[in-house]
Amino acid sequence: MARPNILVTRSIPDEAKRLLAKHCDIEQYDKHAAIPRPLFLKMLKDKDGLLCILTEKVNQETLDAAPRLKAVATYSVGYDHIDVKACGARKIAVMNTPGVLTETTADFAWSLLMAAARRVVEGDRFMRAGKYKAWDPMMLLGCDVFGKTIGIVGFGRIGQAVARRAAGFGMKIIYFDAQRIFPEVEREFGVHFRELKDLLREADFITLHCVLDAATHHLIDEDALSLMKPSAVLVNTARGPIVDERALVKALKSKRIAAAGLDVYELEPKMASGLSKLSNVVLAPHLASASLETRTKMGVMAAQGLIDVLANKKMPAHPVNPEVCQVLLAEA
Ligand code: DGY
């Protein structure tokens, strides 16, 4: 049986590459930059499988350029860059990397929350600029985290991991999710459901963990920001377009809200005009899952999914479209 031919669109941890290479032939765009779209489409022409990341749009145009494509594994839990319906229509299996990045992402949401609340980055800049001349009771005052109220928007795996950490900070934990969890699970986590507007009014810290779809696009817009406390801190490690970034710049600039911690951007990797000039925002380049351990696990999981579908001809562990995988494998 011929070995499957795979396109890998970025450099990935060695362990994942070694695993994939045992079973498949690999062509790789091995750069620390996004693959140019025309090259991506060209390289896909003779490929059975694709290991991509979230900057590659897998849409109808992609599929048209890839007549042999049977499986797509994204190096991410989010798959809003993939047209899953179009893949289904072509009987292409889609896989993602759920679970392995939950705790790492929750840790990072907390890093942003703490850094924004306690002005860690401003303090760092202050030191490096040689501005620290004497201890001052009024210098770089932030706000307390312990005992405050945290509002978690999206109560899936990552939102729940954030809640477990919040319990250690003695916080009141409120959440909003399109699907309310069972009361016994709410009790187990010690969380209280709120409608979104109520959550925005009540929370001192608001952290976003919902998926990006039509319902959550600009969920945090000017109106939503206007409901928040002037002391509120907003954290986004989910997807940029959930926040209207221009409205956020206005709200931060006018001190309508106190601060923000952002890992994702509406037009990533670009930022809305004015954002980088503000001192009350902590900015990170989409690092929430960026620990060596987690990125290795994500790579291995994505590689194994492709191997399972294309070489082992078996159901992958993390299919996004299991019904399509079933049909594809039945025909293999
Ligand atoms: C994801 O997995 O969706 C993140 O955005 C990258 O880790």
Structural key phrases:
single chain; Rossmann fold; about 325 residues; 2 domains; 7-stranded parallel beta sheet; alpha/beta; about 40% helix; 13 helices; binds (2R)-2,3-dihydroxypropanoic acid; 12 strands; globular; 5-stranded parallel beta sheet
Radius of gyration: 22 Å
Order of helices and strands: EHEHEHEHEHHEHEHEHEHEHEEHH
Count structural domains: 2
**Low-confidence parts:** none
Sheet with most strands: strand arrangement: 8-7-6-9-10-11-12
Number of strands: 12
The CATH class of the largest domain is Alpha Beta
Shape: globular
- What's the N-to-C terminus distance? 12 Å
**Average pLDDT rating:** 97
What is CATH's topology name of the largest domain?
Rossmann fold
